[in-house]
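Running this now, will post back.
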Amino acid sequence: MRSHFFKTLFKFFLYMTAIFIVLCSPVFFVNMSEWNTQGPQKFPLTIYRNAIEHEFTRFYPRKIIYLGVFIDNIYNIDISNGCFNGKFIFWAKNYFNHSANDRSQFGGENYFTVVNGSSIDIQPKITRYLDDKTNDTKEKTYISYVSYMIKGELSQDFNLKNYPFDTHTLKIVIEPTHDTAEDVLFGIDANSLIPDYIDLGEWNIKSFDGYSGLREKETDYSDPLLIQKGSIWHIVPQVTFSIKIIRKFLPHLIKEIIPLLILILMGYSNLFLTNENFDVKSAMAITGFLAAAAIHWNASNNIQVGYITAIDKFFLYSYALFLLIAIEAVVSKILSDNISHSHFWFRICIPILRIIFPIFLALTWASVIYTHV
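Update: finished.
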């Protein structure tokens, strides 16, 4: 009697625990989503290559200019059209010794060009000379300084094969409009910064990097000097400021992955129903597939790309499971109407399906996560 009481109590406790977990799971995911949100954070520049350290002895340029950028805002990250909008303050510093052969000038307002700027408004803010400290040779060192406010649209390539686990790099690529590496080399000002008030919505900023190097550039065929030399290419300095962003995955987990998983588990329960419930089993297989297709369409409509992404693979593997559920319901109904329930299908195949179903689900989803994260 006592053992029966404890068994009943244990079952009651087990059932109530399961019900409690199910009912509290939405609260858990909502709170986890809020905790996962990245708060304001500054991102100082990380310099991972500086041309002045690598190419200076190769070209002996007449000018060395240090470039920096302050990201004031990033908005309208348009994945489908391959662009984003930005507003940033860009500056250039040139250290020089004042002499008759003064090469400190930047060459006018159009000295710099944003290579990937598709629609850019560049407004010069300040141009000035500053005295620096006297060096050991008793010669005065000066700083020529110019800054710009740059605002507009920049082109960017986005690869969404890993969606919704994707990361992207927003780039600001700057070159001189006319000068080559023999005229100037670009360094990177380590004071470049992304401030803590930048909020990219569904994206988190992962890093802020600077790269300074050289690029082969096709020249203007109308240049008489280059025509005389027989050259159509020249080498130009280039600075790239890269902002690596990562998509917030948790909202997609709550909106797409978890609903799909619930539909699959509801379909899995069909394998435990008797054939007298054929109408319920077939309806669950069909409606589950249609509901999954609707979620899939909504997820794919957000990015609109012509290739398979990670989210597509989740749904494609899930469709196979819904098809398996439908086949099992039909075959079980046909066999139950004609033969005994002791048939091989009911004794062996259905128990095997109950084991294969979760294994296939786990392996396929794990493979997608492993290959795309």
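The mean pLDDT is 79. More later if anyone needs it.
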